[in-house]
Amino acid sequence: MILPEKIGIMFDGWTNNGIHFVGLFGVYQTVHKSRNLVLLAFSPFEGRSTQSADAHVRLKNSQ
């Protein structure tokens, strides 16, 4: 597999049964211009009173 010239990372969050999760995705584009997402990791976001961007950064830094 040839690696693309540009890649990125994306964080996304979702809630299921009252538990908030944060996912880390790799993002890249092929020569055919289709965007591809690959789930790299995910973590529960338990015990957090807020789901703000600052709270996500603190979670990332605590890992």
Write up this protein.
With 63 residues, the chain is α+β, with helices and mostly antiparallel strands. It has one domain. Helices cover 16% and strands 49% of the residues. The chain contains one helix and three strands; from the N terminus they run E-E-E-H. A three-stranded antiparallel β-sheet has the order 1-2-3, with no helix packed on it. The termini are far apart.
Describe this protein with a few key phrases.
63 residues, alpha+beta, 3-stranded antiparallel beta sheet, 1 helix, 3 strands, 16% helix, elongated
Strand-helix topology:
Blueprint: E1 7-16, E2 19-29, E3 35-44, H1 53-62
Antiparallel strand pairs: 1-2, 2-3
Share of helix, binned: 10-25%
**Spatial sequence of strands, sheet with the most strands:** 1-2-3
Low-confidence stretches: none
Find the structural class using helix and strand composition. alpha+beta
In what range is the share of β-strand residues?
A: over 45%
Overall body shape: elongated
Number of helices: 1
N-end to C-end Cα span: 30 Å
- Element string (H = helix, E = strand): EEEH
- The total beta strand count reads 3
**Total separate domains:** 1
Please tell me how large the radius of gyration is.
14 Å
**Biggest sheet: strands, sense, closure?**
3 strands, antiparallel
Overall mean pLDDT score?
79
Oligomer: single chain
